[in-house]
Amino acid sequence: MARSAFIAPILSGVMLLGLGACATSPRPTDTAAAPAPAAAPSDGGNQAVAPVVAPQVVVDIYRGVKVLANTTNIDWSNNSFGVSGPVPNLSFFNAMGGGQACWLRVPVTVAAVPVPVNGGGTVTLTTVGVVNAQPSPWPAVFDNVPAGHWHIDKTAIAVGAVSNAMAGTIAGQVFRASQAAGHVTIVDGTVANCQP
Known about the structure:
Elements: E1 14-15, E2 22-23, E3 27-28, E4 57-65, E5 89-93, E6 102-110, E7 119-123, E8 138-142, E9 149-153, H1 154-157, H2 164-180, E10 185-188
């Protein structure tokens, strides 16, 4: 079956009131429909039952990034991928805000929407060849502090005890490779025609 048959928006801009959780533009993944459980054997034997695969959807999160001086090219360094906070992490939001030169749109595979607070999903990235990068996928957590905020913990980015600056450098290299591989998308912000 054609890939396009699986890619169809199922919801548009979902927001939960009362739970404080929100997710944007969910779409089904390319996963085929869950298989039906195997029929019980007629002889009453102990045959295995096929597992049921949970449906999954993808929501987009966004990271504002800077450009190199006098260019429209993204600055893939720690300048754009600063890791910070009491529990160091890399911040994302469920929508693009103002004031950022360019944006990266990052798909997160989640079990279902709405995504609960402190729930989340995984981000498929290109980490091969990036020294000290944790393997893909990386977990992304929807903490909703401030509203719409997601994060990837420093420990999910880098192997071992590295500085926040080094974790940001590793994240920049991973996101650059992931953009080249088509896992993340560049979106214009205040700068027109943002380039890798």
